[in-house]
Structures are given as C-alpha cells and as structure tokens.
Write the structure tokens for this entry.
Amino acid sequence: MAHISEAAHQCRLELGRKVSDILESALACEPAGGTSPQWLYTLNGLQVEPLDQSVRYDEAKKAGQEKGAPVCEVEKCLQTLIDNLKLQAPVVVEELTPFLERIVPRHREQYLALASISPKPKAGPSGGMFAFALATAEKKSKEQEYQGSTYVLRCPGCGGPRMSDADLSCEYCGEGKTTS
Ligand SMILES: [Zn+2]
C-alpha cells in the first residue's frame, strides 16, 4: 500500500468523505429505522431504494439499533459506492482491491456499533431551537468530540471515517501511518 498512484490516492480520499457522509446522515435518523430529508437525499443520489415504512422500524429493531436508518440501507449505500467506482475507474479499483473489500464489512460493523447506542437527550442552550440551529455549525466539531463514541470520528486530514479514538492512522489518506 506504500506506493499507490495519484489517481488511487485521490479516489481513496473521495471515498473516505463519502463513507463518512453516509454514516453520519444515517446515524442522525431517529427513531431507529427512521429517516430524514438528508438521508433520503443520500439514498436518492445513490439510487438505493428506501425500505418500506411498514418494515424499516422492525428491521432496525431486529438489528439491535437504538437510532439510525436501517443498517441494510447503509450497507447497500456503501456497496453502491464501490460498485459505481468499479464502473467508473476499473484500473484504480484493481489497485485498491484489498482496501475496497474491507469497506463494506468494517463500516457496516462500525455503523451498527454506533447505532446501538441510545441517542443522548439534546442539551440545547436556553435560546431554544433557533439559537441552537445558529450555534450548531460552529459547535458541531466540539459536540462530536464530547460525544465521540456515539458519532463518526473523522480524520482531521481528509474527513474520512475513523474506527475509534485509538485509531491513529487513517486508511483513506495515510495520515499518521507509521512505516512498518
Ligand atoms: Zn485521513
């Protein structure tokens, strides 16, 4: 993995951001099995059919989720990302094969772990929802720090998802990677 082409590197960076976006917008859905305009937009962009209203809540419960869109939708989105890449950039895909093969299983597992944590009550400031919305943009990164374990941790270098706080290296941009 030490010497990959520039095209493959760029591709990994882009994938990292997309995977983070998928995980984050899926996790923000409440209650478990729910959806949101942002999540529907994500599904639509990847042409993934949302689960029917009549089964999505049961599916999420069965998977042990306390929040978030059903894990099978998330899995389909991740798989679609990879499938699209195979069509668009077959040469890069060949170069990145072992890396790409890990993406769906590991982030499926990561998502399930995060989605099985009960959502914390939102502690908005006294200004109510409007003030909260205004403050959200600048507070977001801090909140993610505080609630670290319930949100997707992003690599500060590329925005790709990290598996845990202890995970010092980034698979997507290679930051923090020690030479072995
Ligand atoms: Zn990174």
